[in-house]
Amino acid sequence: MNLDPRRPRPLSGVVDDRSTSTPTATADPTGRRGFLVKAAVLPALAVGASLLPGTVLASVAAAAEMASPELTFTEFAVSLELALAELYGTALKGTTLSEANKDLANACITHHNAHASTMSTLVTAGGGEVPTAGNVGLLAKFTPQVGPEVAEAALVATFGTLEEAMAATYLASLDTVASTAIASTVATIIPVEGQHAVVWSAAAAGDATKPGQPEAGTLPVEQTETGQLSEADNEISAPTTTAPATTAPATTKAGS
Amino acid sequence: MTGDRRQFLVLGGATIAGAAALAACSSAPVVNSTGTIASTLTPATAPTPTVSPDDKAADAVLLRTVSSLEASLIAFYDKMLASPLVTTPEVRSWAVLFQSHHTAHLATLGTLTTAQGGKAYTKPNAFADSSLVTSQLAAATTESDLVAIATTLEECAASTAAMYVSQITVPANRKPLAAIGGATSRQVAVWRLNDPIAVRDNGLLAAFPTAVSDPAFQSVRNSLGAAAEVK
Predict the structure, then answer these.
(1) Is the CB of residue A210 less than 8 Å from the CB of residue B203?
(2) Do A120 and B166 touch (CB under 8 A)?
(3) Radius of gyration of chain A from Cα atoms?
(4) SS3 at position B129
């Protein structure tokens, strides 16, 4: 199975006028935040009002600072995100998912597409080639597990595994990544992949009417690298370390 | 704190939480719900902030600040667990688990701080407490009120950790910060899923934030700014 993102690929797609605008707070449908605002001072927090969460710097400086392993990782990440979106899409063509789980799958597609778009900007800035299709190896491995006849429980379990793998992969990349632009983007993606894993676990524990409580295993003390995806061998690999780094980064891992 | 980083923390008289001014951009095709390639977005550019490399003293400030948030969470969970308002077993269990996580985070961050030549910090963050906890706790009348405070404080911690990864100058410090922030974000999702009103209205999607423009990414909107830094 080939996970190498650098394959001959045509450019495709049409320009879309969709863009990420300056964030604006949307109404909280639950009213829960209303309680907090009444009680005191959410607005008093010094917040990054000029920051647009989940979007990326693209600059000559960013491109210049990106070393080869970093470029390899960003291309790899795009291919993985596209693969995740495609796998969810395949599952949605089936008939076994509940409406609630379909909603969640669609939300995950939206998120993974956004991740792919953002990482693609980094690829472009680094002078790389943006993958236009999902990672071949990952799709070959998991497409059978999300097919139209697969039972809902198995689908949910697979989604959880995939999301855990993504979070782990991004964390592991921080050993390789020196670019601030990439690192800061990764730091905003890891949490969401982790949240996906938690929510799928809650889905597995719940029923058609409401979610259950996620398994405690989806709430580790710290995000780990367990289950990270490898560019080199396309296998779900064992973690290399879970301890916080206090010294210089380890030598570059697979993918260069 | 380095001058280069400081200049990005104040903009037009208003304190902002981070150095990176991010612009919307993408050039990738996207896969829609039917699994087909849909469209691409037009890339845009924005200036790149400069960060002095390997400024251990600056990193120590960030690590101490995150430490203070962990301490705030530990202290809050003490109060939550002592409150008669908490009656749901699952809520209590999560509070116990998450408090233990934050205790571990505090130890990790202390080690990292010391490695940067700083002094480990173990006290709660006064700014965060006064902004997010004290009066809210006094006004709380239900278990859900306490869950809401936990949600916000955890989100603040997760947001700050994500923000600080972009500000950390010693690259080796990014990973542990991201690991802590990633775990904290998961806890936010759990609290959101234990908000019965949010779940009633949004089902599983209650786990994701609604007050941000792009829930695909950990927001940094609620990260602590310079006023809350522990120097």
Answers:
(1) yes
(2) no
(3) 19
(4) helix
pLDDT in tens, A49-104: 334 444 444 444 454 556 788 899 999 999 999 999 999 999 999 999 999 999 99
Q: Coil, strand or helix: which one is B80?
A: helix
B54: which residues sit within 8 A by CB, 6+ positions away? B169, B170
**Which amino acid is residue B45, in one-letter code?**
T
Q: What is the ipTM of this complex?
A: 0.79
Which residue, chain included where needed, has tokens 């490695």?
B115
Give the model confidence (pLDDT) of A97-150 as tens digits: 999 999 999 999 999 999 999 999 999 999 999 999 999 999 999 999 999 999
Q: Please, are residues A216 and B100 in contact by the beta-carbon 8 Å criterion?
A: no
Task: Decide: A5 and A72 in contact? Cβ < 8 Å.
Answer: yes
A174 chain-B contacts, CB cut-off 8 A: 174-175, 178
Distances (CA, A) of A123 to A128, A129, A176, A193, B3: 5, 7, 15, 20, 30
> Which residues in chain B are closer than 8 Å to A107, comparing Cβ atoms?
205, 208
Q: Rounded CA gap, A66 and B173, in Å?
A: 19
Q: Does A202 touch chain B (CB under 8 A)?
A: yes
Contacts of residue A32, defined as CB under 8 A and 6 or more positions apart, other chains included, come to B144, B148, B151, B195, B197, B198
Interatomic CA distance for residues A217 and B82, integer angstroms:
26
- Among candidate residues B74, B210, B26, B160, the one with its CA nearest the CA of residue A74: B26
CB B230 within 8 A of CB B58: no
* SS3 readout for A206-254: CCCCCCCCCCHHHCCCCCCCCCCECCCCCCECCCCCCCCCCCCCCCCCC
Residues B117/B60, Cβ–Cβ less than 8 Å: yes
The whole-model pTM stands at 0.76
Q: Which residue has the tokens 């077993």?
A: B89
